[in-house]
Amino acid sequence: MALERPIFWLGLAGLSPQQRAALVAVLPYQPTSLPAWRVAKFSEADAWCISGGAARLHDDGTLTVPDSRSAESEMLLHLDQVDRPLAFTRPLSAPEIEPLTTFEPESERAVRMVLKKFETWLQPLRAQYFLGALLHQRLGSLPLVAYDLTHQGVLLAVVDIPKRRIDYLGDASPVQLEQAVWEVRGPSAEPLPSRFQKVGLREVMWQFAQHSAADLLPAVFKTEALRRLRQPLVPEAWLKDSQRTVLRALEIGPCSLEHLLQSGLNPEQLGRDLVSLYFDGALSTVSGEVNWLSSANQRPSVFDPSSLTEATASARLAAGSRYSAPFAGGDTTIPE
């Protein structure tokens, strides 16, 4: 069964209406073999496109970008804390800005090249999405043990369900993962390769839900009142504004999907938000606890990013966060 391609979310800042329209017009025409790109709220996006002409670099290393579509205050970025790929449109307002990449937003070819680079930098996120999709597809028929996922003799991932942890190859391709053989991992298995990345099972399923275009919401959630079981256990920074709205509504008391829709939330995003909370174990129905993985979500993952110290979190971010592209300069995308 072929897996759906993920949605990658793109944040835009400071672009003129003409630049924005030209860039957005390219997004629906990406080949089906690539992720589907959609525009999202800037702070919640997987990758950023910023106006190089509107951005202002300050002596303290911060960057301010005006919001070209409203009278709201400027967005402030701390460049040493940027944790996802970004590109600046040309021309740049200051030569001191050393962007990861620059491009012409009016050039369809340049936009496609930038998106392709983003996809390369976001390979770990893509791998997490497909691992989550495979788990969602297979888990009902699998014993809850640890598995080696191999493709043509190459180990791609170790899914340890009892420990709620996944170790995986960040650049594993969708084809490799979809064709991988699942075998029970024995006690004498070889040590994991040093370049493997680590993530909690809960975090993988959250990413899968937030980047899927499919309707993953259990049928019972559409007919029964929903109730909040607890605060989500994923890192606080992962919560979107729409999810905070849902949690505030459920904190007052159980309510139906129809009631939540009346609050003005986007129906598709609401579905993704509820599924994320369901996979986390923070959401159920009033008739009983509907859990995705038995009692898996009733305890923290063995690998839980929210419990890391600041120093450890910084090291993990550089090595394998969901946005694992380093912020470094020296690349310009010029259409041939």
Keyphrases for this structure?
5-stranded antiparallel beta sheet; single chain; 336 residues; 15 strands; 31% helix; alpha/beta; 5-stranded parallel beta sheet
Question: How does this structure look, described?
Answer:
- The chain has 336 residues and is an alpha/beta fold.
- It contains 10 helices and 15 strands.
- It has helices at residues 17-26, 108-121, 123-138, 174-179, 201-210, 219-223, 241-252, 257-261, 267-280, 310-320; strands spanning 7-13, 36-39, 47-50, 56-57, 62-65, 75-78, 86-89, 102-103, 146-151, 154-160, 165-168, 181-184, 197-200, 226-228, 283-285.
- The strands form 4 sheets. Strands 2-1-3-7-8 form a 5-stranded parallel beta sheet, with helices on one face. A 5-stranded antiparallel beta sheet has the order 12-9-10-11-13.
- A hairpin with a 4-residue loop joins strand 4 and strand 5 (62-65).
- Helix 5 (201-210) runs antiparallel to helix 9.
- The chain starts with 6 loop residues before the first strand and ends in a 16-residue tail after the last helix.
Q: How do you describe this structure in short?
A:
With 336 residues, the chain is α/β, with parallel strands linked by helices. It contains ten helices and 15 strands. It is globular.
Radius of gyration: 21 Å
The poorly predicted ranges are: 295-322, 324-336
Report mean pLDDT, rounded to a whole number.
83
Major beta sheet summary: 5 strands, parallel
Distance between the ends: 38 Å
Order of helices and strands: EHEEEEEEEHHEEEHEEHHEHHHEH
Q: Tell me, what's the shape?
A: globular
Order of neighbouring strands in the sheet with most strands: 2-1-3-7-8
